[in-house]
Amino acid sequence: MLVVFHCMDVEDLKSGRQDYLSTGFQATNIGRAAELIGRMKEEKAAVFLSFTANMAASGLRGVFAEMCRRRFVDVVITTGGSLDHDIIRTKMDYGIGDFTMDDAALHKKGMNRLGNVLIKNGCYEFLEKAVRPVFERLYNDEVVTSPSSIAAALGSSVSDKGSFLYWCSKNRIPVFSPGITDSAIGLQTYFFKQRHPDFGIDVTKDMKSLADIALNADKTGAIVLGGGISKHHTIGVNLLRGGLDYAVYVTTSSPWDGSLSGARTNEAVSWGKIAEKARHVTVDCDATIALPLIMEKFLGD
Question: How far is 36 from 103, CA to CA, in rounded Å?
Fold first, then answer.
């Protein structure tokens, strides 16, 4: 279907009625992404939300929390660092700096730079205190736990309504984190095991429950922000059912080095991770820009 090219109207911009579909370039793909997400919801597809830790350190944390509060998604797949940032930010503030700051000077001040986001060392001291009692409770219930159990326990331990873990725990949305040990929480596992050597995290414990969600759904859709293990776990589990029916990727990575992070949706079709007849789109944009624009029609009221 041919969409007529449309020049931006200032009045439409002021009222928030801009038609991205007919604007051109990546704005058109943002419009397509919103359209596909709307179709996922209309078709009652099981919606997988995948994102990386850097995004949880940004203002997108609030968007994730709202999506989970409204039960807009059915599954969250993310990295261990997302759990770090979400828990830390229930009590601690991050700062805004610059991408070109003097990093040696920051290190001397006990300040860590994540892009242009600044995180004090004290944030991780707070995380250690927050995680320790959660591990103790989990250990008393089961010596070997799973990433999803850790995520649920962390979510139930906080009361911050700006936390996506809080809402996932409250609304029983499972959070899977297959690479959880690659995080500050993973480091805390090391310390915890000094006192409890038999404590462990079995990432395979979550495989059946995640697979069951994909296999039992009539249709599945995915909102994949960034790449890495979160992205691959999302599309990989859907291989079991013949691929996703809907897929929206948002990425800033290039496909030319063969990396998963830069791979477009059409590449996943060749692997059977997105179905041949699926509807899909890749948005080449920073997720901190693209996701709020994509989700404004769903979360704007």
Answer: 41
* Ranges under pLDDT 70 in the chain: 1-18, 301
The encoded tokens of residue 109 equal 């001040």
Tokens of 49: 């939300």
Residue 213 near residue 75 (C-beta atoms within 8 A): yes
3-state secondary structure of 200: strand
Q: Which DSSP category does 17 fall into? A: -
Q: For 181-201, write each residue's pLDDT tens digit.
A: 999 999 999 999 999 999 999
Burial 140-159 (b: 16+ CB within 10 A, else e): eeeeebbbbbbbbbbbebbe
- pTM across the whole model: 0.94
| Predicted pLDDT at 62 | 97
What's the CA gap between 163 and 39, in Å, rounded? 27
Number of Cβ within a 10 Å radius of residue 238: 29
Strand-pair category, 95-96 with 117-120:
antiparallel
Catalytic option among 108, 193, 273, 277: 273
What whole-number distance in Å separates Cα of residue 154 and Cα of residue 150?
A: 6
Which one-letter DSSP state was computed for residue 2?
Answer: P
How far apart (Å, rounded) are the C-alpha atoms in residues 164 and 160? 9
- Residue range 245-298, pLDDT digits in tens: 999 999 999 999 999 999 999 999 999 999 999 999 999 999 999 999 999 989
273 part of the active site: yes
Distance CA 183, CA 32 (A): 34
Residue 92 φ/ψ region, left for φ over 0, alpha for ψ in the -120 to 50 degree band, beta for the rest: beta
